Amino acid sequence: MSAQGLFDAIQHSALSDAISKLDHLFGAVAQLGHITGLVLLLSSIVLVNLRLLGWGLTSQPITRLATSTNKLIWSGLALLAVSGLFIFIPAALIYYVNPFFWYKAELIVFALIVQLTLFRWATRTDEPRPLLAKGTAVVSLALWFGVGAAARVIGFLN
């Protein structure tokens, strides 16, 4: 099955039909859930990355800050994924032809790879190597804010 065929099947599924028949309030709740997930994810990532850059919360140990925000990061990501599915499923073919949907998907993959590797390495110790800490922070911020920017452009092109 081609990617377009998969997206067509998703949009014409029973789940898509059920979501489409829900009250418009459900769509608004899904959008609010998506925004809330984005705020949880980005605010937590920004806090830790600013600390890695040495620009904020310098009195807080990096390991403690990373541990404290970890649940918020993954809760935000889970909320984004679930609400995003409810937004995506009824309009899958619209997303399929939108290049910014694909940019967003690629950026999410790269951001998660950085989050699960470099970010973890940089926040394992309270005294990470400066190049690792600053490089990780810059790359992480660029990727996650790139995801947000691509998502915003998707909304303008739909």
From TrEMBL:
Keywords: Membrane, Transmembrane, Transmembrane helix. Residues 25-156 form the DUF6644 domain. The chain crosses the membrane at residues 32-52, 72-95, 101-119, 131-154. Signal peptide: none annotated. The keyword Kinase does not apply. InterPro entries: DUF6644. It comes from the Bacteria. The keyword Oxidoreductase does not apply. This is DUF6644 domain-containing protein. It comes from Novimethylophilus kurashikiensis.
